[in-house]
Amino acid sequence: MTWPRAVRPIATQPRRHSLDSPPGFRHSADVTDTSANRPLSFQAMILRLHQYWSERGCVILQPYDMEMGAGTFHPATTLRALGPDRWNAAFVQPCRRPTDGRYGENPNRLQHYYQYQVILKPSPPDLQELYLGSLAAIGVDMGVHDIRFVEDDWESPTLGAWGLGWEVWCDGMEVTQFTYFQQMGGFDMKPVAGELTYGLERLAMYIQDVDNVYDLRFNDAGVSYGDVFLENERQMSAWNFEVADTGTLFDAFRKAAAECENSLAAGLPIPAYEQAIKASHTFNLLQARGVISVAERQAYIGRVRDLAKGACGAWMEKNGWAA
Amino acid sequence: MGGVNHMTDFLLELRSEEIPARMQAKAREDLARLFAAELARAGLAATETVTYATPRRLALIARGLPEATAAVSEEIKGPRTSAPPQALEGFLRKTGLAREQLSERDGVLYAVSEKPGRATPDVLAEAVAAVIRAFPWPKSMRWGAESRSTESLRWVRPLHGIVALFGEEVVPVSIAGVESGAATLGHRFHHPGAITIGSAADYVEKLRACHVIVDQDERAALIRDRAAALAAEAGLVLVEDEGLVAENAGLTEWPVPLLGRFDPAFLDVPPEVIQLTARVNQKYFVCRDADGRLADAFVCTANIAASDGGARIVDGNRKVLAARLSDARFFYETDLKVPLEQQAEKLGKIVFHEKLGTVADKVGRVAKLARWLVEEGIVGGSGDAASRHPGEGRGPATERAQLDPGLRRGDAELAEQAYRAARLAKADLVTGMVGEFPELQGRMGGYYAAAQGEPAAVAEAVRDHYKPVGQGDDVPTAPVTVAVSLADKLDSITQFFGADLRPSGSKDPFALRRSALGVIALIIDNGLRFPLGHVVSRDVLDFFADRLKVQQREAGVRHDLIDAVFALGSEDDLVRLLARVRALQSFVDTEDGANLLAGYKRAANILKKEGITDTAPAQRHETLSYTPEKDEAALIAALDSAEPAAADAVAREDFEGAMAALATLRAPIDAFFDTVTVNDPDPAKRAARLTLLARVRAAVHEVADFAKIEG
After folding, report:
1. Which chain A positions have a beta carbon within 8 Å of B316's beta carbon?
2. Is 0.80 surpassed by the pTM of this model?
3. Neighbours of B23 (CB within 10 A)
């Protein structure tokens, strides 16, 4: 399954933003690295976002230690979005989309990339201003760049989830998905959570003004994105498309599904959800290997959705929340 | 209140996060409609209502409202004073009044209630809340802390502010935690702070001063004019696109069109691809050069007046477009490497419909049908279409249309081209480019066919075989294209009907009505002599009849006249059918026509009463056993000459001529009814006269079943 959330943005230093004191409209000077007057490196951009959202009360999490197609799959989004409790978190999540692999030869497409994910529940009234503040924090000067909120409704058939929002454009480029979740796992959100998904590589390419993702400055000590990931893309693309043993993968899918149900029977929604994540990624690998027919595809998606919904339902039940 | 006739304007602004551009026009209509309905309930009406929409606000100005609603005196009629006491008691219970509170007039009791007028702001406060709660957004959402309840307010995106001013007075509204006031926000980036609106009178100008053009039409005009001017300054011509104008107006509060250039190397990609990429993905306009070719320029519409004049915005947009065009070029070049025949093999894996096999199956059927249409001379290169219309001097087309096998053979090469084009027509469905842009189906196939050296007629047919896709679309005229297009649509219609998947009511999931309209347009515009009954069943023919009525209604053709011709039962040649209908329409509008129709109906009614439904054998007066009366003999004579004249004219497809022949019957029929008694006591006379009337009916039915004609 391809997850309709690619993304990427930009900006700078933490400021308070509200309707009275609107977001950094024009402070590109803040945005550059302090040591040299140049745009933030990839890692500095992440650090800025961590700092920005940390100062706004978010739990800063580390990436989940499982392969997944989008930050939305992280239990800190999917499971924590459910129920009445306040929950504010931000984290980087590596995303794996095996079919997007291009052996390191395409300047824009990767089978492994990073999303920066922010989840705020309930959605705060100034979510748009907070978001624009984060863009300013990593270096986007809104006096010379055109930021637009363009309708983009989000739906994940595999998570039984949907929401309304926008893709955020910066000079015509989509840099963020901005969503007000309305349902997750088939359950109405009570209350609604706001989700921001920044496409970090795209945003960094924009801020650093480079045309090839592998040319990004990863840090300010001479390491490029290509130094870190190019060989990884080559090898993983080969494995995803050509090598991964399909028998093993089919077996893994069955086992994950069975283990999900085993966990549900034992009243353990978190491990059950992990197995749903595993089944989902395994399905993505099978797709990349080209061994799932069009007719079977819907059946697999339906199976993953059932697992995810089962885990969400068990999570609700375990917490004593009414649907 | 106080009886002053002072009129006041009301301003309402509902400020939210960005409203999808495509929803704004309908939202303005809904706002005006719901608001007017709420006012009407209170007995108020504005003298004028104006609505505005921007991405962040929906506004309404209602002019000329009174300070208060008028007091209303309502009278309910009760029983008569003489009515029994139970009736009075019942009325008193119903109205909650005592007997002495009723008034009496002409012996009837009335309950009169006085409803005092209400202050307009009170009415407005309720109206605004009601409008917000009832607003029919196509998709709406909940948000924020209030959404702990699923009953919380739903709006298109979070609602943040309400400006409600009656004159200069705030109309108090409180809904979902939003309190009305006089303050709003200006442009998100140019003027993010609060601004205070004085009244409806200064709303538009105060916002303009804060970089918000509230009026969507003004923004649209600005985009339209500025984009065209930018193109002209660059020596180019903007490709106009009102859809894009409206969409960009819905995405901006302060639109600033900017012109940028892209790498001219991308112009190798078909222009439709570039235009679609720019339009659909990026909402850019494109331009043409002086020779009409697509130019290496685009116009994007920013929402800010950038401090650097827009240089960085243009540069950013150029890069995004370049990345998109690189993708498009990649697909195009990859597709070009695979011959269409090879692509077409993959169609065997695509299910057309679960009951109807694969797309490859369909392609096989369509190719055979397309070839047959040419072989049978239904579609062909001989003679131009115009000369094949009836009544224009061609020989008896009825014979040509008999499809006598072997009688007429179209050009063999044309038939093979139709077959070949149909075999290739759907192959582009599996190409990368059409996967990316489904709306380019056909267009891309046409490019790929030309690139692999197919004859021009084949490539053109591949490109245009979906046409016409709607009313007003071009109707193909090239024979190969016509054959493939006709075959494709006929196949869909007959296959879905055969599988009992026909349209019903508002449901037409396979767009068969549109296909039928396409078939009709192809046949009529090309003057194709195609007896449809040879290839489709009766129910499909009836389906075509219905579509024809819909299609012809717009051309001002009366549906009852079409019915009158279809009712003959034998007419399945649409070109001839319409020629009959046209002649009929001119005829019934004449005095002769109207009178003949009246005479016909009189005759038909008598026959119907007598149960005579058969067409009587022609009967000549010398076989009569009695001497006919003068007007009887005259009618016989008139029929004797009109019948062969009408039949000859029909055979020549000269329907005006046939009508003229019938018109000669008008005076004799009128005279016959005036002076001759049909219901004569002599059974022989009666029978002969009924037979005469049956001859009249039969003669008229040579042209149309006049019984179906209204009036």
Report:
1. 145-146, 170-173, 206
2. no
3. 18
